[in-house]
Amino acid sequence: MSTITLSDATFQEEIASSSETIIVDFWAEWCGPCRKIAPVLDELAAEHAGKLRVAKLNVDDNPETARRFQVMSIPTLLVFQDGEPKKRLVGAKGKSQLSAELAEFL
Q1: What is the mean pLDDT of residues 83-96?
Q2: Residue 22 class from Cβ within 10 Å (0-12 exposed, 13-18 middle, 19+ buried)?
Q3: How far is CA 95 from CA 8, 11, 15, 17, 82, in A?
Q4: Quick one: pLDDT band at residue 40, thresholds 50, 70, 90?
Q5: With bands split at pLDDT 50, 70 and 90, how would you rate the model's confidence at 1?
Q6: Correct CATH for 3-93 of 3.40.30.10, 1.25.40.10, 1.10.10.10, 3.40.50.2300
Q7: How many helices (H) and strands (E) does the chain have?
Q8: Which residues are the active-site residues?
Q9: What are the pLDDT digits (tens) for 22-35?
């Protein structure tokens, strides 16, 4: 599976060591839109395996990283390439809209 779980402790190492584009999904258990977008992200990760990975970071369990990247609302998706944030998407989106907004990375 192309989806990984991140924490405050593992975030930097996982992001910096990846040769693939990583979409970090900042989410929480209680967030309905987060649950709605999760299967869409899983589909994209499966379709673009080898080029794209999806990483999930629970903001309730890992507030340090959420603060560091100024995540104020969830779901927030940050796209990383070469360890650097390249794009931020806020809010739940359908697969076609999300694919269109991520097309430059796919």
Answers
A1: 94
A2: buried
A3: 28, 26, 24, 27, 25
A4: very high
A5: low
A6: 3.40.30.10
A7: 4, 5
A8: 31, 34
A9: 999 999 999 999 99
